[in-house]
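User: Design a sequence. Structure:
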């Protein structure tokens, strides 16, 4: 074992601006690498987007996030997940192919959309529990109880105001991605005893329409 290397903090003027950071990411691998737990960007509130980027740069960033989400593959991606501390996310879900899953999880197709400075609040008291995974917590899944219905506010990529109500799986996706913009990972909200790998027995439990069997076998309560 060697002694840790101690280095001083870099001078403030050495830190890249948001625009410089985005340019670096755009010039890097495509799809972009997805950061994993331990990266500070996942634990810090993202910057509100107020036009800090040129229109062409912003559009290029959105398209890179879209390609990265598809390649992963995933149904949502927030800018901090590719190392950019900006309140921006993209979502898209083809929906559940299995009819029972689609009905139980209320998982219709969610067309591609961009969320800028999104925020949400619960509508009504109903909460539902399902397994979730995350591209930034690779290889694991856990049960998360979330509001079934939410009110989403924010803007889209054109600056148009968003103010709408979402139900079921689309609401879950939006909550998950918006949480990223506040430095929150799904594991922070998860039932600890439900944590399971994404394959083997854990994958089988998570693949059931509801986590009822997992709750019984692993010993936790559902919302």
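Assistant: Done.
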């Amino acid at each position: 074992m060697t002694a840790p290397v101690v280095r001083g903090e870099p001078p403030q003027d050495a830190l890249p601006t948001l625009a410089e950071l985005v340019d670096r990411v755009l010039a890097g691998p495509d799809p972009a690498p997805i950061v994993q737990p331990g990266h500070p960007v996942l634990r810090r509130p993202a910057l509100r987007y107020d036009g800090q980027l040129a229109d062409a740069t912003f559009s290029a960033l959105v398209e890179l996030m879209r390609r990265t989400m598809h390649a992963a593959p995933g149904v949502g991606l927030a800018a901090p997940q590719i190392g950019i501390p900006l309140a921006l996310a993209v979502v898209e879900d083809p929906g559940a192919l299995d009819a029972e899953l689609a009905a139980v999880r209320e998982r219709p197709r969610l067309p591609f959309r961009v969320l800028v400075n999104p925020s949400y609040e619960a509508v009504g008291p109903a909460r539902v529990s399902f397994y979730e995974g995350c591209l930034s917590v690779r290889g694991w899944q856990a049960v998360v109880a979330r509001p079934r219905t939410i009110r989403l506010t924010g803007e889209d990529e054109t600056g148009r105001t968003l103010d709408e109500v979402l139900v079921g799986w689309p609401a879950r996706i939006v909550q998950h991605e918006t949480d990223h913009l506040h430095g929150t990972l799904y594991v922070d909200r998860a039932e600890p005893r439900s944590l399971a790998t994404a394959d083997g027995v854990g994958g089988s439990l998570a693949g059931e329409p509801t986590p009822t069997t997992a709750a019984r076998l692993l010993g936790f309560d559902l919302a």
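The chain has a mean pLDDT of 94. The domain at 18-218 is CATH 3.90.45.10 (Peptide Deformylase).
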